[in-house]
Amino acid sequence: MSGAEVALTGVGKHFGDTAAVVDLDVVVPAGSFTALLGPSGCGKSTTLAMLAGLLRPDTGDITIEGRSVVDVPADRSGTGLVFQKPLLFPHLTVEQNVAFGLRMRRTGRAETRRRVDSMLERMWLGGLGDRRVGELSGGQEQRVALARALVLQPAVLLLDEPFSQLDAALRVEMRTLVKDLHTESGTTTVFVTHDQAEAVEIADTILLMLDGRAAGHGPPEMFYTAPPSLAAARFFGAGNEIPGAVRAGRFTAQGLDLHQETGLPDGPAVLVVRQEALRWGAVPGEPIPGTLESVRFAGTHLVLQIRSAIGLLAVQVPVGTAVEPGTGVVLTLPPGAGTVVAA
Ligand SMILES: Nc1ncnc2c1ncn2[C@@H]1O[C@H](COP(=O)(O)OP(=O)(O)OP(=O)(O)O)[C@@H](O)[C@H]1O
């Protein structure tokens, strides 16, 4: 089944005095792979639980393909859910776990067998159908949990940090599997993670949540090349923050016009520039003279710290670049390399 559009309008949820989710207005496009990203406690799991119909929002509405699901029981909302822990039925076999939902729906015996068998094959679980789930590895258990959700052909697949308990190599394998499944089925997928690298790798769209609120929604590249706020830039590790001000659409720092255009109104602002967006040496762009203070080996590159008139700046250069601390150097800010955000 192909995916469905999911829309949240003014969605909020409190637990006592804690505002877990505040006024969330988001449209998750049909067929997208959306990462719900943010630090611990920002409201990701609460949002997912509301999408799944496990929690009722205090305010607002959630629709799937235009139909409100706020008062629809979780098993009828058209969503499939996989948690951090597989939560399989321990007394059932792999095959019985995967068939469970179909049996509940009174799907015919032959049809159930056909769908379960084909799902087990697809999940590299062929031959394990008769195993008790207690005899499986962590990765196999999580594949059974995925199979159990997907065999029902949900319109929306909801995944809450599904691989966080697996080791690094297995996580990479499972990400590839989930991405391939998404490509094959087109099922709208919402994937909760606190890991920015995982979100960038797996998703076509990221919804960043900070303190219960949406703090940016767009393709992964957007958060690198045009972060919507200082907080969003910091979450993605912007690298350099140059304080300054906007006057008539131009950003200046320490009286220097860095030729960065912005639509922001006049007032204090910060130019965020990733370490890899600054250039070492005089190339086309805004030259920034300074003194090389330190050099740090970072595995795939060197990170240089340069003292300049606009503050201490970090830039990445290839390993092997000839650098000598204490010497005068020139960095370049290429046109459009930074983003001006409100302070
Ligand atoms: N059942 C609950 N009762 C009380 N407070 C809750 C409950 N569930 C969540 N919260 C609070 O709501 C806020 C958001 O929690 P949520 O679990 O949605 O965040 P999260 O981003 O998923 O965090 P994590 O990555 O740590 O799972 C937190 O402050 C949390 O303590």
TrEMBL record:
The keyword DNA-binding does not apply. Pfam families: ABC_tran, TOBE_2. GO terms for molecular function: ABC-type ferric iron transporter activity; ABC-type quaternary ammonium compound transporting activity; ATP binding; ATP hydrolysis activity. SMART domains: AAA (SM00382). This is ABC-type quaternary amine transporter. Its EC number is 7.6.2.9. Residues 6-236 form the ABC transporter domain. GO terms for cellular component: ATP-binding cassette (ABC) transporter complex. Signal peptide: none annotated. PANTHER family: SPERMIDINE/PUTRESCINE IMPORT ATP-BINDING PROTEIN POTA, SPERMIDINE_PUTRESCINE IMPORT ATP-BINDING PROTEIN POTA. Keywords: ATP-binding, Cell membrane, Ion transport, Iron, Iron transport, Membrane, Nucleotide-binding, Transport. InterPro entries: AAA+_ATPase (IPR003593), ABC_SmlMolc_Importer (IPR050093), ABC_transporter-like_ATP-bd (IPR003439), ABC_transpr_FbpC (IPR015853), P-loop_NTPase (IPR027417), Transp-assoc_OB_typ2 (IPR013611).
